Amino acid sequence: MALFGMAIDMTRCFGCQTCSVACKMANNLPSGMWFNRVETIGGIHPETPSGTFPNCSLSYAPISCQHCENAPCVAVCPTGATHVDERGIVIIDADTCIGCKSCIEACPYEVRTFVDDSFSHYLDISVGEFDAPGHKIGTVEKCTFCSNLLARGEEPACMQLCPGRARYWGDLDDPDSEISKAISGRKIKFCLEEEGTSPKVYYLQ
Amino acid sequence: MPISNYQRFSRRRFVEGAAALLALGAVSGTIGCSPHQESVKSNEVTQKSEPPDQIFECVCRSNCMQICPIRVHVRDGKIVRTSANMAIPDQRYARICLKGLTHAERLYSNERLKYPMKRVGERGSGEWERIGWDEAYKTIFDTWNDLVEKYGSTALAASTYAGNYGANRDVSERIANALGMVIVQSFYDMNMDNALDQSIGHDLSTFWHANPPHSMVGNTKNIYIWAVNYCNSQLQNYHFVNEARQAGAKVTVIDPVWAQSCQLADEYIQIRPATDTVLANAMAKIIIESGWTDEEFLKFRSVAPFILKDDGRFLRLSDLGKAKPESDDDKIVAMEQDGSLVDAADAKNPRIENLDDIEGLAYITAYEKTVAFLADYTLDFAEEITGVPQDVISSLANEYATGGPATILIGWGNDRFLNGHSFPQSCALIAALTGQIGRVGASIGDNNGWGTITPDYSAPNGNTCIKTAACHAPQCFESGKIFDTEIYPHSFFLQGNLLGNYPNPNLFEKMLLDMDLLVWHGSRMNDTSRICDILLPATSWFEEEDCVSGGGHPFVMYSEKAIEPYFESRTDYAVWRAIAENFNLGDQIPETSEGWLRDAVASTKHLKEQGVDFDAFREAKFGRLYDDDYVWGSTEGANFPTETGRVQFYVENFKTSGFTPVDQFDGTKYRLPKWEPPCEAWPETIRDYPANPLVEKYPFYCFEAHTKYHSQTQWSHVSTVLELEQGPYVWMNPQDAMALGIEDGVMTRIYNDRGEAILPVRFNEGIAPGILVAPRGYQRDQYPVESSVQTLSHEICSDVADNPSLFDKLVAIEVYTGGVA
Fold this sequence. Notes:
The complex is a heterodimer.
Chain A: E1 4-9, H1 18-26, E2 37-41, E3 50-52, E4 55-57, E5 59-63, H2 72-76, E6 82-84, E7 90-92, H3 102-106, E8 113-114, E9 140-141, H4 147-151, E10 167-171, H5 178-183, E11 188-189, E12 201-204
Chain B: H1 5-23, E1 54-60, E2 68-75, E3 78-84, H2 103-107, E4 117-119, E5 128-130, H3 133-151, E6 156-159, H4 171-179, E7 182-185, H5 190-200, E8 222-226, H6 230-233, H7 238-246, E9 250-255, E10 267-270, H8 276-289, H9 295-301, E11 307-308, E12 333-335, E13 341-343, E14 364-365, H10 366-373, H11 379-386, H12 390-402, E15 406-410, H13 422-434, E16 443-444, E17 466-469, H14 473-479, E18 481-482, E19 485-486, E20 491-495, H15 498-501, H16 505-513, E21 517-522, E22 534-537, E23 546-548, E24 555-559, H17 572-582, H18 593-602, H19 605-609, H20 614-620, E25 622-624, E26 700-703, H21 719-725, E27 730-732, H22 734-739, E28 747-751, E29 756-763, E30 771-773, E31 810-815
Parallel strand pairs in B: 6-7, 6-20, 7-17, 8-9, 8-15, 9-10, 15-16, 20-21, 21-22, 26-30, 27-29
Antiparallel strand pairs in B: 1-2, 2-3, 4-5, 4-22, 11-14, 12-13, 18-19, 23-24, 24-25, 26-31, 27-30, 28-29, 28-31
Helix pairs in contact in B: 4-17, 5-13, 8-11, 8-12, 8-13, 14-16
């Protein structure tokens, strides 16, 4: 069984938002909900740099569920709804989730959203993949690494085409996989490494 | 709008969190196998199921200049998803963006028009009544027939604008010709592209005069992103810049503001807006004085050796009595080292300076004329005008000339000033001086096969329409004349969103409101439709088949019909066909759009040369414009597609791209890239160029940025896009703002004599002091108080290009104290 991971080359990402929107559309996410977002590392507003003109600095970091090996959300889940599956993917079982939100508090990446009864979509029709997970009021949702797409041999929506060619995907256990080759020999950082979560999203420097 | 979890992390925690990504210690070294433990448990769905969606291969084709092949996923007759089409024959050019992914929201949003409507209240009141197509056509054609009978065909005007780039919409050109109506054409980008056409030529498309972007990788040593925020406005090809950089190229951004493209660049050079010509000309002077010129290139691939007569024209064999004037044999001559005069094409080693007297008279070459012209562009002068320090200019010139193959990616930032036509010409000058063009890795300008599918616009009945550029239209309508032709416009047929995109819309609105009948055909309600009398619903790109060109990649593309027309919407072709039939001109175009597309493909040069007809093209979906190793202008000889086959930094016959009649246009003043200040946006007195007195009232430049969230106003109401950008807004330098007592986030009013925009300010350290940047792409009703940044711009064009000068304006900003909706 593959152990899936994702790598993002920060020397190539230019914050184009394609991955975040690909995710939102493919998963038919309600208004206001994002499983993947591109954060600006810079000024106080998105896409603005830090520093003082003209000595500025700007970069971007796409952030989604880090699918941690040592996932704080798993540790606090009282029902076992949040768990790591055999592919290394952190999954929430909507049938077991009681919506206690303890995982939202525990996750340092703020990638989990509680679906309350006010959720709505922009359109009357469902968009995205036919088998995208539904949205169940009173539960918590997040990135599934597009498990529905993986099940039929496809890549997650955010991976399907990165305009910056900054994203890599694949089986971390397979040395010939795209991701293994991408991270090989590269300087790597993990998001909030001090949290000790052991993410499976690699940020290449 | 709901509070987005998108914003939550940024506001509170993520600034630290994201920053920590960079601050944390790195794990270096090879990671071959995973450090992660094996699975814990799984109840994940693992059954394989085939998606029930039908997939169509279509083309996303707004006016963003990218033109992307996409897959359209259809379920139950509706488009539910769009994704990148990886079937593109060269996957380096596979592409999709946040806009191309949100088509479902564009197609099924509330702004989409379902039925023909007629106005029942005052114009602009928003009161409409649904009618049928028959009634709509009857109302329109009864009025039009009366008007044409009374005033002739110029009673009718049309503007088709940029919403639907494909061969089908071009049928409007043929019908307009057959009918002899007035066409109001809105141009952009033509300052730059006309100048490049004159100096280095173009292939079939006026936007095609550079090496393909992939050839930068591994070949180009220096990349200059000049007057463009490339990672935003040309984002599909930005990865080539990064890959070239990772392969060893240095990337330099030259721009008035610290644009986002600076994040992955090696150097940023700040330049005063609209002074790029001066910088390039100063580089040219240094290159010549330092002896960094490429003599071979100058002699054999540029106009350098051509000999100038008193009138500034080139000396030809006829001037020596050796050929009949203007005959095919009347070649331009050059002087060999031994003093003999020969056909320049045959010259073994032509002189580019120090000519002998010819028949007792002294002459100079185009090169010498250029050297003399550059005398004014001293380092002192350039530093004062551009604000770029002298040592930076010198090292830039040195690096460009001697640092190996260099590519200048010119954008349309400079083009948006009235004087924007000279800069591309000075780029051609420095490229010719150094041989940085016509070889692998060296190039200037853009590579875009825009318009390479070429339907025949000419009408079989021999009639022609009367064209003017939008910038001149209000004055033409007022005077009843387009140059010497009398016109009697009483009704306007509009496709697209003239009032939402064009500068100075208040002026155009007045022009339109003078019309007896305003008819609009479009898919989504916009600033233009709301003042019209009859609205006709238009299909989207995915509701008809079409053939599409352009996009900064080597392909032309066939776009499938994926779904049936939305409610009662009809295609451009159907509506123009109905117009033709009303005027008994049905025989002027094929019966169906398929017939039109067949003809268009048959007359498309690159497909014809490869023996590709419509059926083959429809089957393949892609047609190739050039091979992988394509080099602009070939790699040797006088093969540039200019009048002389050479790079023309001195243009003997400079032509306008606008509609100014040939006999009313004096091209001689544009032969060399002479810099003039912009027409309005010149707020300081520098040297002999006095500040515009308007600066007392209006001290700021104001740029309408093209962000990745918009393509004109086409994505204005797409909810997902709005959630991300949360505009409209204006970016401002914090020091400037604080000096005026403006705090971050407050509502401001930007204004000048023409208009105003009410919108919140966002502090941005990347914006140079003295400049405001307000992204375009929103409609008036999206501002907190109805207004728009377009109203601040003027419509003034130069005679070179009929090109609106969107950035060439001055504005003031103040805290807005009125109420907002």
